[in-house]
Structure formats: structure tokens, C-alpha cells
């Protein structure tokens, strides 16, 4: 854990590998996220409507799915790391007032979240 999903409107430009590498390194550096557990993916939405439909508007939502057991402060730290990194990567879009950035942290129940990992 965690599972990390970057959901975004199709009109963004991002070096996903670089973003996910930076994010992974920062999360692991906290000591609360094991490197072997980090799984990142991007999901692009071709069909979206933001605010009033202007085509230049963009959105990015960074979802962290974590196994239960981390404190509120740790979950807050993880969310903050994601927001700071997105703010850095999307500085130009933020200055142009054309993007909405958001983070979510969801806890997964240990007994209901089953995993088989053959990579470890």
C-alpha cells in the first residue's frame, strides 16, 4: 500500500513517470509508506465538464487508498505531500487560474482488502 490514482481531465500535460517517481520517493521518506507497496496509475477522462464548460479548464484529483491503521496526522501528511507536489508540477496552470487540484485519502479495511503480490 498505497494504491495511488491520479484522475485527470484529458487536457493536462504531465510527465507521469517523473511525477510518480517524485511522489513515491517523498512518501517513502516519511517512513510510513513501504517502497514495495507503492502502486501508481493515471486515469484520464476524455468526457468531463468543469465549472461552466470552458475547454481550457483542467482538473486533477490524487487519490490515495491506504490500509487502515495510519494516524490522522500521517494521512494528513500524505495528502499534503500530494498537494504540494501537484502544485509544483502545475504551477503554470495555477497561475493561469485554469486548473483544480484535489487530494483524497481513503482507508481500506484489512479484512476486505485482499492482495496477492508475486513481485516481493
Summarize the structure in short:
With 120 residues, the protein is of the alpha/beta class. It has helices at residues 16-29, 72-89, 91-95; strands at residues 3-9, 39-45, 58-67, 99-108. Helix content is 31%, strand content 28%.
Description:
By secondary structure, this protein is an alpha/beta fold. Helices cover 31% and strands 28% of the residues. Strands 2-1-3-4 form a 4-stranded mixed β-sheet, covered by helices on one side. Helix 1 links the parallel strand 1 (3-9) and strand 2 (39-45). Helix 1 (16-29) runs antiparallel to helix 2. The longest helix is centred in the C-terminal third of the chain and has 18 residues, at 72-89. It starts with a strand and ends in a 12-residue tail after the last strand. The model has no long low-confidence stretch (mean pLDDT 93).
Amino acid at each position: 500500500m498505497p494504491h495511488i490514482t491520479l484522475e485527470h481531465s484529458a487536457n493536462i500535460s504531465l510527465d507521469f513517470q517523473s511525477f510518480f517517481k517524485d511522489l513515491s520517493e517523498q512518501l517513502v521518506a516519511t517512513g510510513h509508506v513501504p517502497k514495495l507497496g507503492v502502486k501508481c496509475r493515471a486515469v484520464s477522462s476524455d468526457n468531463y465538464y468543469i465549472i461552466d464548460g470552458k475547454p481550457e479548464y483542467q482538473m486533477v484529483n490524487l487519490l490515495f487508498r491506504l490500509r487502515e491503521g495510519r494516524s490522522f496526522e500521517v494521512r494528513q501528511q500524505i495528502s499534503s505531500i500530494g498537494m504540494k507536489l501537484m502544485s509544483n508540477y502545475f504551477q503554470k496552470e495555477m497561475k493561469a487560474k485554469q486548473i483544480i487540484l484535489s487530494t483524497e485519502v481513503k482507508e481500506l479495511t484489512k479484512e476486505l482488502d485482499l492482495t496477492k503480490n508475486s513481485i516481493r
